[in-house]
Amino acid sequence: MKKSRWKKGLVLALLLACTGTVNVRSAGHVSALEAAEQAGSPITVKQYGEEEDSSFSFRLKRTEHTTCTWKDTSGIADPQLIHQTGNGIERWGQMVTSDAQKGKISCYLTNMGSYKGKNTNLRITFTDWPSYRTESGERYYPVLGVSLSLTTDFYGLIFSDIWYEAKMEILDDQGRPLAVNMTYRADDLDFGQIFGVKKSDAISGLAVPEDSRVYYIDRDGFYYFYADNIASNEYEKDSVQVQYKNASAFTLRVGGGVAFPDSFTYTRYVSEKVKKDYERFRDHLVGESSVEESTNAGAILGWIAGSARGYGPFTPPVPVKSVDRTEVHGEDSFTYRINFKVPECQPADYYQSLVLTDPMPEALTVEKVVVYDADNQQDVSTKFHIQITKGTSDQVKVSARDTSSAWIYGRSFEIRIQVHKRPEYIFGKSNVVSNKAGLSVDQKTPKETEQVKTSFYYQITTEAKNGSITASNLKVPAGGTMQVTYSPLPGYYLKSVTVDQKETDKNQHISGYSFTKVNADHHIRVVYEKNPVLTITKEVKGKWDEFGTPVFLFQITGTDYNGISRTYYEALEIPEQFKEDGVYRKSFIMQIPAGIWTVREIPVSRYRMTGIKEVENGSIEGSTVRLDTKDHDTAKATFCNELVNYGDFSHNDLEINVFGKQVGR
To answer: Is 665 helix (H, G, I), strand (E, B) or coil?
Structure first.
């Protein structure tokens, strides 16, 4: 960074005064562009205007609430501390005086930007530096420090001629390690300065621009970049971009002049030059002297600032849509979630507009739309215009109110759209609705989400009394079909089938009911009743001789509970013999459908009916009895007979009449 740039407040890079010229094409030095062409090179060449991956847009930056706490826990006497302000910057630092200070000097920077809506902090620990001596054998140590721009959001590491190593630890608002995807870009490498990236860190990308003028070397476990473009104002050409993936710490080496031997700038800074520079440092950098005072005295420090700038714009936010339920019951409410992150941007790259549109499927209607800061789950709907247009298909439009505000950049957002099925919508062959949203910046072609699919179902609840039925609470795809089957317990008959509290014709649904084109919940209730018992008893008086086995025949006619006329016949044999004047009783039981039944005895020879008695749940009507099993589980009657002696007849005579087959006429 040149002195004139400090005055403009554009704090981007490093600075060190120097004189003389050097052949930058010296033998043995490889440009970063040449190195990028080698097989297996870690370097990528970026084209200007090429989109950058916005998932790496996080960066550490100064905010208006940033504070710095500088510590030296080495215990050395008289630490050479620096704290200066002026020229729109503030800087803290220390002149090292002993190797015992390695790893003991650190600074803690608070409120260094935000990640997922929460403040981030940065701890820098100065861990290493070389054992540099001049040609006359004098030992010199580096100058360490950090600098904050008071007019922009940049910060940087300051240094003098000798390189040092700094471990950068990213911490959350509670001081805990915070793993992030981030970009660190060093701009304007000049005056022989170097920038080293530790190879073992979580490096995802290492890039230089297409017209880079920096040089590259891989050694000591670091990727080094250095330059000699003295007094250059073409800052992007002399930059290096590093992307870290899921990293909570990374290590850099920065310095100038005598950064490492064999560089073509080395000889320019050794011996008397270093000695004079450090004399000026001691006079003007220690204590509370202002930046202007030390700078005007010629003791000027260089610094490297971490920027998230890309060589082209960051990729516009790519929305991701999800749904809280992929399977929805009827008209239950559910929520679509659309997530996107607005990348970190420099003010010059701020959007003119940011608009999300989401056309709803015809089956759905929108209840409400809320915008959240997805990182800390705060409702930020007031920062957006929310428009819901009702119609055959509802439309949702959400747009940022002020894209010129820095607040929106670097944040993740979640738009929640609560919807439910339209009551009047009827599902046909498919029970699935598909939906996707689009997010557009600066009226460009929207970036669309993947299709999100949601299926709908209804429930069939079932109930059976005295029988079994298909399990209850079954899910039926909306618009689909379901067959419910049922059966009685032994000894029971189907009394009724009720669907949605309306009794159906059970004769049409004896063992099952089919629900078709289901677009609502349904309930089916099946009732089975115990088959009634009809008991007919025969009471016979008198002794018979060997006339064979007496057989009595009964006719049962009537109408069952369904209104169907039926006739049954039942025979009863009395093979046993008994004494004269004895009484013999025998019964038969019939389990026939409930109904009103008339029972009569068909007359037989040798026995005449003398009456009907012992009637239960019925009434005698002449020579018949009318029994009610429609309203009663049982009905009974006893038919009484007495023997009449007809000697010319037997009880079991059987005559067979044979009719011959007539052939022809």
So the answer is: coil
